[in-house]
Amino acid sequence: MTKHLALPHNRSIFRDDEPVIQSHPMLDGARPPRFDNTECWDINGVVRRAPNMQAAGMRVWFRDLSPEWNLMARELAMVWFNPRHPAVLARGLHLPAAPLSPVTVAQRIGHLRAMAAFGASQGLPASLDDWTDDDFQEYVTRRCETGEATSALGHVHLIKALYRFRHALACGGLQRDPWPGVSTNAVLNQPIVPDLKTPVIAPETWFPLVRAAWTYISVFAPDILRAKSHWQDIQARAQQISTAEADRLLRAWVTDPAHLVPLHVVGAAEGPVNWSLLCWMIGAQPRHARLFETASRPGRERRAVVERLVAVGRTQVGLVADLIQVSRPDGLRGPWHDSLQPRDLWLECVALRNACYVFVAALSMMRDCEIREIVKGGVVEHYGTPALKSTKRKLDPDLPTKHWWIIAPVADAIDVVSQLSQHNELAFASASPRSTGEGFVSGHAVTDFIAHVNRSRHITGLDEIPQQNVTPHMFRRTMAMLTKDFPGSEIAVGMQLKHAATRALANRTTQGYMDHDPSWTRHLDTAIADRRFQRLKDLYTADSRGESIGFGPGAERMREAFAAVRQQAETLRSTGKAQRGDVRVEFDLLRRTRISIRFGKLNHCTMNDADPVGAKCLENAVVPQGHRGPLLDRCQPSRCVNSVLGPEHLPIWQAERSSLIRLLDTPKIPKNRRALLDAQLQDVELVIKRADQ
């Protein structure tokens, strides 16, 4: 029931009967609350709610406020919802056109209720304008004591809004800023771009978690989907039947040798018959048919027929037979699930849905809200590469459709979860047929999946996942950190994280995501070193076969180093210190030689960190303190003595030359543009000339 408080004498600039939502796109048939609703503005069903947002976050509450504060709260909310309202503009208040989201407005009104409670507890005046600057500072200090300083920023923002909106508020708001000339962040000594506080997922949790998610998708999913389809068919065929019809259906079911009697599982052994499931299987709804009750003679006779089938071994455990076999921790092999009964099937469908969410969050670097926006059929091709199509919401009022490049296993996960979804459009939604809504909380999905894996690992054979507080945002942070050391990753990660508005290397947010974490140092160093040495072995083997490994001075130095390794290995063999024909000797020597090389997409770099002579990237450059190695963004492959042009690079440079020549043939190119293209073509020609020589 809508409550209406007696309004203060000062009249608001907003009419009592006008809707509170005027700037957001509204849903069809929406009925927004009116301004005179003094209890709660429920925005559910008025504007679109993100799938990962709870309905409670779309309600703006004004309870526990005096009439004056209640009116002030509603006016603030009205301004935030409609920043270009004619009445607001008429008061000389010009705000950005984009309205705030209902969630943000609800939070800020919650801050106002907290401020009112503080004033009442301290015996402060009812009018905010009578509070002193020290009162506001004490309030902010209390907020910092109850939580992090960053969480108090919203309260400072509210206080400054009361001053900024003063001409649009009936009570007059604040006639002075308690912190004049000081920004909101500076009040709390917080940086404009704060340090990223999202932790990474520890490697001992990351590896078993991602492996378990992929095992569910690639190994267990076919059985789960097969059982789900079978159960849906059974339910669709079942009907309310008479006793005579039940006998006929049972006789027909028994005569088909393909039909197996479903059993329960007790411990690790087969248990009694699942009579309820058997009713469904023969085509009768259990709540309407008492086919196998022991209180009647026909029921006992039907039971006897079924028990004879059990005696001859025509049985199965649960809905379907022949589940995938796995290796268990006790060393034995068996089905990955002991009994896919209807209830167990629902639990496994939820677990599979959660596994798909974990896998996509881990390997796509999408935000939680963006993953939840994925629709069925959302896997498309984007510039020749598989991609997910979703809506970008954060920091973008236009809500554009964006593409996230993905790998094939992520596409498989989307296909699986789409088959589980009970929602008409969304891929990630409820997996239960009893609910067709959005259906789950993302954070709970992760923790529930970890608990489910650990609970059943003695059957599934999955590795135990250590307990760690894993949130959806941590997947994005961890994967960005893991991809940092791959060539060109600073640009690729920046685009995948949708921070491509500025160059990724200059973007502090992207760099924060990519910062290393001490817990991963050993794993990353080992993995990168192993991969680099494997590629070095491939070059060494190709050179030993007389194949070309590259062009340029850097390649000559590599060939000389490889020749020295082979000569030293031959010396060891001639003295009997190594067996003839054992190539491991050469690989051991190659590893100890520590040849400096960095592999890239357009060329390789052989610069020696201890002696960077001739490195063009370091000439006239300001090298950051503590930096070792080349400055990759200043690489000049055509002019540097450390550059190696490999055979795999040559087609790329030849294609670039053809592209530049076509551009130069275009008529009416501006002189400055033509000069730039000529310079680029000369550099490309120098690189290709090295290969020709």
Summary keywords:
flat, 7% strand, 693 residues, 3-stranded mixed β-sheet, mainly alpha
Class by alpha and beta content: mainly alpha
Poorly predicted segments: 1-8, 486-492, 498-511
Radius of gyration: 34 Å
> What overall geometry do the principal axes of the alpha carbons give?
flat
Quaternary status: single chain
Give average pLDDT, whole number. Answer: 82
Query: What share of residues are in beta strands?
Result: 5-15%
> How many β-strands, per DSSP?
12
Q: Let me know the largest β-sheet.
A: 3 strands, mixed
**What share of residues is helical?**
40-55%
Question: Helical segment tally?
Answer: 22
**Spatial sequence of strands, sheet with the most strands:** 4-3-5
Please give the alpha-carbon distance between the first and last residues: 87 Å
Describe this structure in words.
Helix content is 46%, strand content 7%. It contains 22 helices and 12 strands. The strands form 5 sheets. It has a 3-stranded mixed beta sheet. A 3-stranded antiparallel beta sheet has the order 8-9-10, covered by helices on one side. Strands 1-2 form a two-stranded antiparallel ribbon. Helix 1 packs antiparallel against helix 3 (102-122), helix 7 (203-237) packs across helix 11 (342-364) and helix 11 (342-364) crosses helix 14. The protein is flat and about 95 Å long.
Offer a concise description of the structure.
By secondary structure, this protein is mainly alpha-helical.
